[in-house]
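Lay summary

Proteins are chains of building blocks that fold into shapes. Our project writes down both the chain and a compact code for its shape. Here are two examples, one after the other.
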Amino acid sequence: MRMPIISITRSSQIPCALIVIILSIMLPCSRVTAAQEKDADKQFGFAETLYAEGDFYRAITEYKRHIYFFPDDKNVEMSHLGIAKSFFGAKRWNECITAVNKFIDAYPLSTLRTEALYLKGLAEKSLKRYDEAISVFNEIIRSPADGWYDKAIYQIALIFLEKEDWNQARSSFLLVPKASPFHSSAQNISEGLKYINEIPQKSPETAGVLAAILPGAGHLYAERPRDALVSFLLNASFIAAAIELYHHDHYVAGGIVTFIELGWYTGNIYSAVNSAHKYNKRMKEEFIDRLKENISISFSWEKVGGFPCIQFSSSF
């Protein structure tokens, strides 16, 4: 019986055909991947451009678009942080803090974690939640990340300055390392705080007593001459009107005018006391501003060589 002859020539061509089919499938996929990466770079670059131009709300939208359409892109982590930075730039402090918390939850081991914490601390400070801000900055101080230790100490010192805790502020400024670009500013402010108690101040009690003796005198003492003139003329007019009404036996009308004048008179005293407080606050703020003018620091994020940094400028 004759056995059928099997041709191996035909069967040997099958692996080659499979290889051709596989390559024809893979090559277009690799081209799509490259195109997607290029689109992702464009999307991220556009978001970064909007942020740099100060168009923060549109930047947030584009960062979110980048995250949604390219979840596996290398810059997704930067987009999450970019959202937080954009909220900060737009002065949406609460949204910034929420975005930072989401970033830290998503990337707990990120090399950008310390920068994100610093941003959160600044947002808490802007909301005047000083205890929370100090807690965040202390976490940065305890972290091993380089380049953030001195910035965190400086911010804590500024918080004590805003709280008018002069001793704590001075001590904190002295902790800024000599190698830090903030050292000169910290030393200047710390030295100037020695004279904080020599700032001219007005006594609220004295202002109130003077206003009670003569309406307007308290405002004049608090160096508000325009308010002093208005207070004097207003109270004098009502007093004169009441006297005139009583003189002509218009007791009901005189009583009404007297009642109104009592309101103006009491308000004059309260306003004089408040003016003294405002004067004291203004003098302290002007003193602190003059200290800060020696070195001005801008806490805005910029790109240098593709990496975020904090710019500062000094004037002597």
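And here is the second example, written the same way.
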Amino acid sequence: MGAYILRRLLLMIPTLFGIMAISFIVIQFAPGGPVEQVIANVTGQGGGASDRLTGGGADFQFDSGGESGYRGAQGLDPEFIAQLERQFGFDKPPLERFGLMIWNYSRFDFGESYFRDITVIDLIIEKMPVSISLGLWITLISYVISIPLGIRKAVKDGSAFDVWTSGIVIIAYAIPGFLFAILLMVLFAGGSFFDWFPLRGLTSENWSDLSWPQRILDYFWHLTLPLTAMVLSAFATTTLLTKNSFLEEIRKQYVVTARAKGLSERQVLYRHVFRNAMLIIIAGFPGAFISAFFTGSLLIENIFSLDGLGLLGFRSVLDRDYPVVFATLYIFSLIGLLVALLSDLMYTWIDPRIDFERRDV
């Protein structure tokens, strides 16, 4: 197992390099880079993508004779354009910039945001509580509901219970999460009906003044609507996966043998079937959590004003805040690869018969 883990860890190096290289190449052809963002701001042609245009707010002047390769830069002082290029690192050739980025990232030095006066790692840490809350609770709720329901559906396969619950699951999966979020907002968050739940943030403004029991209630009060909207698709997927996994195991020969030995259906189900059927469900738990933790739901974060990592990544792409874009891509890719390895190791922990180092030739 040690050799397998070492091989997987070593394979992460070229995988990460390839991800970053392809992303870097694509970015080179994307229009509207950070220099163009600042030019649009200072010439009044664009929105406020940045709060910090140049380090220290350098003065600039118009020069009708200046020429620039940047769109919208006509009439700006070439020295001002050159200063922007130096600030953002575009005075260096692309290959040198990529090499410097990889070297810094290998030392976990992610630099500073172009348009926010904060380091990238501090910015990610600042947004992380929202993503942790959403990812953790979505995963736990979906598993707590879906596993018992999926087992029950497998046992009652073809019955009236299986049919009507399947209808509910399919409808839940078909409803877009953001559409359901809007419906919840209209119904329960001061829309056209009730004003029971808040719309913004994870806590109230007076959260620091509340007692601990009140803080806990306030926290879940804010999470109720976002979690309800986001859990639908995860709930449906896990339920059907659990049912199909149990059905596949129930139909195998060892189950027939266990029944022939006189074991009760409950003993057959939980002593024999459960362990094998839950292998794929439990092993997928880290991946499900990381997926919810990092991606969550961008639209739902926006609807409920939850400033998490998903919204951060989206805004960074729009603002062309490349340090944040590449750093989040690098961190998320690295954690994704580590979680994939962890999922494989969980297979061996749940079922010791699985050995990734033993292969039939």
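What can we say about the second shape? The chain has two domains: 24-120, 121-350.
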